[in-house]
Amino acid sequence: MTETLAIMWMPSMNYMLWVFLPATLLAMWAQAKIKRAYAEASQIPARSGVTGAQAAAQIMADAGLNGVAIEPVRGFLSDHYDPRQKVLRLSPEVYEGRSLAALGIAAHESGHALQDAKGYTPLVLRNGLVPMASLGSRMAFIVLFIGFILQSAGLMWTGVILFAGIVLFQLVNLPCEFDASSRARAELTRLGLVTGDEDIVVGRVLNAAAMTYVAAVIGALLQLMWFIMQANRR
User: How far out from the chain centre does Cα 29 lie?
Assistant: First the structure.
């Protein structure tokens, strides 16, 4: 009994040291970076004087996207674009804010709406992977845990495949996020909503936000590698 518990405990310790701890520290660093960049940029009012919602409306109107609604949504940095309902949802600080942070984030989410309208390939792929990623997020860890307890290679490999769906979704999501930020900065500058020096501040916010996605991908890849190693041992 003691030997069995020891065998089960050692992989758990390895998981803590080689996967969970590095991934957690990286995620904490990325979150601290975006919060710091957002806090600094939120104190700088945009010279154009527009709100985040107005900036998003101008960007989409200029692109001819008249069918996308802009709505406020609760939560801090809960901003997102819903491609199914064609709705841009902005947190209160971004929707009503007139800071460079508000304009940058609103423009970034507008970038996703532009991607959707133009059939941007990575976004189409990402939307198609949503069911797979959703199933993986619900079932992967449950199946992996049961497989580990029962020492079942079949169940563990099933869990690995389910978790791989999450990783694939996150990988495909990376170019979507970087492209949306690139589009955001270009549109803000082109429409005169931010000046050249203001664009530098906006860039800091969007680059920091991108790091949260990079951190999530690295953490997910570390977990996937560890799960594959454990499945191979079975």
Answer: 15
Q: For the whole model, what pTM was predicted?
A: 0.86
Q: How far apart are CA 146 and CA 78, in angstroms?
A: 34
Question: Is 93 marked active-site?
Answer: no
Q: What is the pLDDT along the chain (234 residues), one digit of tens a residue?
A: 333 334 343 456 666 667 778 888 888 999 999 999 999 999 999 999 999 999 999 999 999 998 899 999 999 889 999 999 999 999 999 999 999 999 999 999 999 999 999 999 999 999 999 999 999 999 999 999 898 888 898 999 999 999 999 999 999 999 999 999 999 999 999 999 999 999 999 999 999 999 999 999 999 999 998 899 888 876
Q: Is 60 helix (H, G, I), strand (E, B) or coil?
A: helix
Q: Which of 93, 109, 177, 198 is catalytic?
A: 109
